[in-house]
Amino acid sequence: MKFLVSGHGSIRNSIKFGFQIWCVGVTKLECVTGEGRARERIWLYERLRSNDFETRGRVASTRLNFPFLFLHQLYALSLPMAGHTESVLPLHVIDLAENDRHLLAQKVKKACLEHGFFYLINHGIDLKLIDKVFEQSKLFFDLPVDEKMRSLQDNNYRGYVPIGKETLNPIESKQGDSREAYFIGWEMSEDHPLALKPLHGPNQWPSKDLLPEWRETLETYFYKLLEVGHCVASLVALALDLEADYFRHMFMAPAVALRPLHYIGEISCPEEGRFGTGPHGDYGMLTFLATDENRGLQVCRARDGEPKLWEDVPPKKESFIVNLGDMLERWTNGLFKSTQHRVVTDGIDRYSVAYFYDPDYDTVIECLPTCHSEEFPPNYPPITMGDYFKMKFTSRAQGSSNMNSTPI
Ligand SMILES: O=C(O)CCC(=O)C(=O)O
User: Fold this and answer.
1) Mean pLDDT of successive 10-residue segments in the chain (408 residues)?
2) CATH level 2 (architecture), domain 92-397
3) Residue limits of the Fe2OG dioxygenase domain (predicted)?
4) CA 383 / ligand 1 centre spacing (Å)
């Protein structure tokens, strides 16, 4: 079977062109070479020729549904694979079912030193709950825009973040990130003394009439993940030769945040500054990411390397992808790296749920006692978590880099 692939200009053109193909039932693939996207067409051609099941499956299954989508996806497949690379980063796997905590801590240390990312398995969260979180998240993002806008993000960053509103990397991105999000923090009544601080206060919740199970599902997940966060933080502490509970008292009313995300099925093109999520390092301590089965996450291990090498981190069933944030890099005097990452999407809707495990607002982030010596003095002055985040948000708003850029 052959398909004809055109891929020039806009999606609209390709849909129009593709629709004609659909109507006349053309079944011929012509691999057009010699122009900008030749490499990608060859990729598609090779995949179809070699009977690549996934590619065929995706094309075929969409074809049954709706011709527009069929062509949209075919077009997507003809693009620069939305920046996907052939290389997959084989991350370490941390298994929380492992009994020997000290051995596990050594594995965490290796993962933190080598990649700043790892898969976490046997984390103890019921997979049915995770499925339900994705189901509820999709229900919210499927609501009409007007309905979603009723819980528009407030001054504490809580609530709905519309498509393209955020740009995680204002330097490299030419447009807002092609995703929408919802931000949920530590629930706190308006009259709580801490609610006067930035980022603190009540959450926004979608209408119970529309989504009766939303709040309960997301809150249950939020607090279960907090326990997983404490567990991994204790392994990080052991990995740094600190007491297992070293970080625990810093999480009394923490600035943790749950963020369901929906990538809207656009086609990323890193060369043209179009991303699902622009290249960035997370601001905080640890991030726990659950994704659907669609790939998109990529990491760049050598932050200053030129050209940058981006490696795919594919989803792994029943696991979280955990990464270290800039704050932990600062805390450890640069020992543990906050690895740059981004999301590139290839025309298919993608859902993920990120959980940012960050300490109390007034926690002082000061070089950890085991991370400096006479030979290696602290690189950064102490700063509170709140001020650190303010600095990060300000530098992003001013369009500058958001890594740890203020050494002593
Ligand atoms: O959706 C993903 O896979 C990653 C999201 C992310 O990196 C972020 O929101 O900081």
Assistant:
1) 35 36 33 35 44 38 37 47 72 97 97 97 98 98 97 95 95 96 96 92 96 98 98 98 98 97 95 96 97 96 86 96 97 96 95 98 98 96 96 83 48
2) Sandwich (2.60)
3) 254-359
4) 25
